[in-house]
Model the fold of this input.
Amino acid sequence: MMLFPQLPLYAIAIICGILSFLVTRLSMPRIIRKLEKADIVGKDLHKSWKPIVAEMGGFGILFGFIIGIFSGICMHDILTFPLCIVLIVILLVGIIGIADDLLVLSSKEKLFLLFLAGIPLIWAAPPNVGIVYLICIPIAISIGSNLTNMLAGLNGIESGLGIIALTSLTISCIILGKYDVTIISMSMLGALIAFLYFNKYPAKIFPGDTGTLIIGATIVSIAFIGRVKLIALIVLLPNIIDAALKFYSAGVMERQQFKPTQVDENGNLVRPEVGFKSLIRLVLRKPIPEKQAVKIIWAIGIVCGLIGIIVAIVMPGVLQNQTLANFMQIKEFFYQLG
Done:
């Protein structure tokens, strides 16, 4: 039964975002204490004094997101099915993140498990699509989750980029009139904003794979359910560039093979003379403080987010142009493959 039938979708999305923010904000101090007590901690290698920081803060993000989505289901039961599908996918991805944080999965194991976690999203696909399109959905969940997991390691970088990407997606969906998927984006956005307070420099907690994987999975879920795949691809460009640099320079590497960014006597970050390339190391052409490096990466994310919003603004005009509309029909062929 719909509890608030008079509320428009955008109002429900705002309420979901506020509730997820409050749940994460209020639960994080206790989660931090519990993780420290359980000795689920790690060294912050990017500071000269190497502080011990709680890990697996993704628990708090996950709790907030769950409450946000459940609230959306209660307030607008017409959307129960797609919201439940997304919730199942994010919970499965979160469980894989927990397993990776505790057991350290190999890259192949993680990719395969994330592929399996993305299979339920197939049931939210548009009707009458081909098998190739359906297979691409769990593949995209696996790749997207790993993308947001790879560009990580500095205080606030993952949660900050997640906030920027989801803000851009939310605005884009509002522009395009896709208010239903804003419930998903706002639920994750509220939780990430609350989490950033504890994750920003100097971090009191790290998200761990529990947190970083679900950010990418949420973005991909919004991309397919809201049919905003191009915009999602644009807002993920910083992560895509980072992954491309790493793969080009070192191929597929396990995290144990990574040589961390170094810290000089002044507390500035210094990239190693040898090793893989990454977006962070591209920024570190000269030694700079960690906070400055994170702000530069965020700025890149903001530029990509703004481009995504511009694409959303011009997209209706593009579709009205007959020549471009004919070109866009290529995607319909892709939908029907298989």
Remarks:
- The mean pLDDT is 90.
- The beta strands are 41-43, 52-54, 262-263, 269-270.
- The radius of gyration is 20 Å.
